[in-house]
Amino acid sequence: GDSVTQMEGPVTLSEEAFLTINCTYTATGYPSLFWYVQYPGEGLQLLLKATKADDKGSNKGFEATYRKETTSFHLEKGSVQVSDSAVYFCALSGGDRGSNYKLTFGKGTLLTVNP
Amino acid sequence: EPEVTQTPSHQVTQMGQEVILRCVPISNHLYFYWYRQILGQKVEFLVSFYNNEISEKSEIFDDQFSVERPDGSNFTLKIRSTKLEDSAMYFCASRSGTLSYGYTFGSGTRLTVV
User: Fold this and answer.
1) How far apart are CA A74 and CA A6, in angstroms?
2) Angle formed at CA B54 by CA B52 and CA B55, multiple of 5 degrees
3) Least buried of A44, A68, A86, B31, by fewest C-beta within 10 Å?
4) Cβ A46–B103 below 8 Å, yes or no?
């Protein structure tokens, strides 16, 4: 079945530092890839997505590129802010056509940004 | 922007009691899901629902769990006889027929079984 492996962290950075959170996946088909963010005490919010190989998803300064050759979807941001402190989840959907397109999540990466 | 609404935000129940978690998905969405997140752990798929029936369920979704869409707007998750290990955050999600638009999640219901 489908699976997602992401850097578990926690990751602690200073404001304006560069962020990378690694995510790799295993899927039988051609999945869509997502990054979700969970701020403290809140639900899951879609951060960005990519639906096919070489697509780049971007939002709020975050970017991730769908790399089929390396089965990766690493999240990057050039300059993090304190307000980016949250848990970040990599997820995929649609890899297994029989899966009804449920989301399969990685374990999440806690990011703390210090002023 | 359309939202998925979940109620209650927090529920405390005694072991062995029945609970119903409620969700109002986005009105023109066709696919509905429940996920759970045990504290500090990954988000896990429970069940998907389409065309008024369960389309897929995980191993977690045993006979103690059931889902309903009773009136075309609400989407409920019932746990018949709660166990301590059911304590978790439960998320409802919905999506349109087009996968590329992604899923919209509710803010979750934190269930605490004591």
Assistant:
1) 9
2) 110
3) A68
4) yes
